[in-house]
Amino acid sequence: MKKAFQLLAILALSSGVAIASTPVEIMAPIDHIYSPKGFDSNDNTEVIIEGYLPNLCHKAPSSTVTVEGNKINIKVTALRYHPSNPFCPEAIVPFVETVKVGLLDKGNYDIVVNGKSLYEKRGQIAVAEATSNSVDEHVYANVEYVQKQAGSREVVLEGYNPSDCFVLDEVNVVDNGKDVYSILPKMKQISDFCPMKMVPFSYKMEVPNNLKQDRVLLHVRSMNGLSVNSLFHNAK
Fold this sequence. Notes:
single chain, mainly beta, 2 domains, five-stranded mixed beta sheet, four-stranded mixed beta sheet, 50% strand
């Protein structure tokens, strides 16, 4: 009888551990939608979502997207572990999720994130008509990271270019009039011979002071239709 009781206790404990270690998918809390300016109908349009995880029982935010006419539906979820999991200290974890919407026709689109939930957020994005058949009209630097310094408007774009036959030509900045600076580090080709050679770079630039929001998104276009997205405290 004693052995049977011990066996039941072990099974119950094992079951509890299994429940604690098996996550379930939930809607992630959303704070803000960022809609960069500058996408056209040949670009892979992106929407950037800012949210947070309530504690460390929540992991791995991810997103799915569907487009129905001029409506972009985005679902942002996270994995939630049972609160009995020993690795769940109370700590809010912010995140920035880059949602790749893909090719869109010219027009204005409504964005709905986590629709019909407590965390529903809405926004808009405009897509211009393409003026060429290429994914990008320019070759952009292969930016991998944006280095920031507290209290300074100067940032450093860092990364590696795949060849030394391209050099930085200019860095253009456009904003959406609200909360996003789109940074365009344009490259120019200086040689027809382009050997494969990883060339590190650091490009300094000053963030403009046109937008009034306390916090804005730096949306840095990168090589091959990619981007690097980083939040910036817009101190006056």
